[in-house]
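Async update (no meeting this week)

Hi team, since we skipped the sync, here's where things stand on the single-chain job. The sequence we agreed to prioritize is pasted below, unchanged from the tracker. I ran it this morning and attached the output directly underneath so nobody has to dig for it. Comments welcome in thread, and please keep replies under the output.
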Amino acid sequence: MAATIEMNRPRVVIVLGPTGVGKSKLAIEWAEELGGEIISADSMQVYRYMDIGTAKPTLDDQKRVQHHLIDLVPPDQPFHAALYRTLGRKTIDQLYENKTPIWVVGGTGLYIKTLIQGLFASPKIDPQVRESLKQEAKEKGADALYERLKKVDPKTAFHLHPNDLFRIIRALEVFDSTGAPISFYREQHRFGEKPYLTLKVGLEINRDRLYRRIEERVDQMLEKGFLQEVERLMEMGYGPALKPMQSLGYKQMVQFLLKEIGWDEAVRQMKRDTRHYAKRQLTWFKADSEIHWWDESIDREEIFLEIKSFWRRGGERA
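Output:
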């Protein structure tokens, strides 16, 4: 009976790793050869019109392999992990029903985690606490709230960027409303759902090589017209205050267009912040013991054979 239940769960290959490591390119090559469709696990690729700065798969890439969960909403429409989970699970169900191999590819750790392991039940929050924290942020700035979070919930603070005010407030409002840190509730839940059989393929390369790739990638984005993309977004009415417009790369291009910083400084900050982001991604993923890490520059054939074996164990659905 247990074996039957095991076989009836969808098999999902998850290709993850830091930005710039080459996840999308390799996943497309593997999916072309082994079959299947790709579900993007990137919190920025869900936004329409934001293509170059999010390294979204090109139209040619999408012709080679069908992609899902990209271009879902305009930049001024909120999007979050719970919605991603709903749409992602619906897509997995459809692909499984059609006996289509399923690939999840991306670097947004929270999206991957909620998709395959579920969300913890959110404790009840006092609305007045939330408003008080927002007012405190206006008066004292994000840094002050982040410093307080480090004292009351260091585990959560470690995984958050000091400027991620939305999630900082979210963590503090849980603590202020319940007296327990949000990390406590997450640990209690332990993301215990196991709806899929998964193979987690983590891609990594030497840190110096990764940083060189990141700098080259930024240069390539700029050559492809990243600045013009941001300029068009602003002309379409998507203002600098929107969360996606404050994201990696877009923030610096906006600041340059508003003459707040010069070109060289904008590029320097983009490269620096992307390196920092890659480091945070690795920290998140390294905490997951289920991930099998490979050096994509030397282990490609071994990874390919491992994936083939994983699909083969799924019988006719592989």
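Quick observations from my side:
The chain has two domains: 2-119+191-317, 127-189.
The chain has a mean pLDDT of 90.
Reply here if anything looks off.
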